[in-house]
Amino acid sequence: MPDFDVIVMGAGHNALVTAAYAAKAGLRVGVFERRHIVGGAVSTEELVPGYQFDYGGSAHILIRMTPVVRELELNRHGLHYLEVDPMFHASDGETPWFIHRDPERTARELENLFPGQGEAYSHFLDEWTPFARSVADLFNSAPGPLDMGKMMVSSGKGRDWQAQLSRILRPYGDVAAEYFTEERVRAPLVWMAAQSGPPPTDPLSAPFLLWHPLYHEGGVARPKGGSGGLTKALRRAIEAEGGQVFVNAPVKRILVKGGRAQGIELENGDIYTANAVVSGTHILTTAAALPDEHVPAAARQVRVGNGFGMVLRLALSEKVKYRNHVEPDSRVGLGLLIKNQQQLMKGYGEYLAGEPTTDPPLIAMSFSAVDDSLAPPNGEALWLWAQYYPYELSSGSWATRTAEARENILNAFEHYAPGTRDTIVGELVQTPQWLETNLGLHRGNVMHLEMSFDQMFSFRPWMQASQYRWPGVKGLYLTGASTHPGGGIMGASGRNAARVVVKDLTQRKWQRLGLK
């Protein structure tokens, strides 16, 4: 008898979601994680005394468009979400404005600041909310070759679907310019869309902007105590159903015999057997753990890209004080800090040349404004995400150029909040090299693979592997950001993969498990 019904390789949030559903279905589950804590890029630790630092994603948005939290009863396992409202603080350093959960309030305040732009915002939401909802539906199911058509049919009722399709196929920067004439409004929206990776000029990238209405649908939240609150709750959910979670347990290889996955071997030589193996690690890590004869060429040809972003995580002795401050709203939501769209394009140009961005736009997150457990009284945990940063540099190395890139991020933030550098009492600098070495994110890409249209939906990671099964090896399954729907804190990949695994191993349909 095998040691487990299901072995899960890696303990990122999608892997844990798959494991939790499998355990809930009555399967014997074992999770094996190389790091000392679960969560992967969705984990939190006290790296500076009194300050909790997230290692990766911090804003929980897309997961609220899934039933994962409800179906797995994660609130029962210690997950407590704090609402973030306003959701976003947009600013060029001179004129701040806010995106609230309430779209009418957002439009009203925008109209007062920038006449005509509030009306444009309402028009944008009205036109694209059906599309955004259809995208969310597609995220919550295995991808198919007709996904684009499904989006159009479900979102185009009563509308000019040909005009809709034309916009979807265009760069998101062009679509933003159709709606918003004011640079101070347009640039932050474009900057938020750029979080998926492609620049505003990439064809077929419009959906990264057009799912903006989802933010108003599901809102933005933070787990109490840090982003890792989600993955800690997932671990408890697995263990409550009899599953086992092993940390400091790096997998060396996936055992394959007779064309079927049989288990895993750890780096220390221990072997565990199972009826199925689910890999939640990067697709290239999965490939490296398999015998060469079971790795198709397509698995080695996925496009990882050349880095992406860089994070500066700061422990501050004082609260952040913006130059043009609206207390406390400026510190609550994600700060979309960008001077203009040219700043983003200049940074992308430097990135293409193999150089770290010298004056980056920023996403500023000071969630200690809504969660006093992240920092001491009067202190602040501030995280600054910046783009774009190449993994491979045209000159030097990250060992020699980290200090320079750190200074440029701090200098960029000083434009918005002068004097911040004087309050720093601790920090974590996460370069693309750091992200690869410490979190297993190949070439520093937090999305695993580039989020371009040719690697989305049924093309992710490649067509033959898009249904969460590794082609040619029975009993080997995939989940995580390398699979549909890609990166970000959503859990949809984990849930989608679980549906496949549970059905294959139990022959029971999802509905019989009380899940929808």
Automatic annotation (TrEMBL):
InterPro entries: Amino_oxidase, FAD/NAD-bd_sf. It holds the Pfam family Amino_oxidase. Residues 16-501 form the Amine oxidase domain. Interacts with COX5B; this interaction may contribute to localize PYROXD2 to the inner face of the inner mitochondrial membrane. Probable oxidoreductase that may play a role as regulator of mitochondrial function. This is Pyridine nucleotide-disulfide oxidoreductase domain-containing protein 2. It comes from Deinococcus oregonensis.
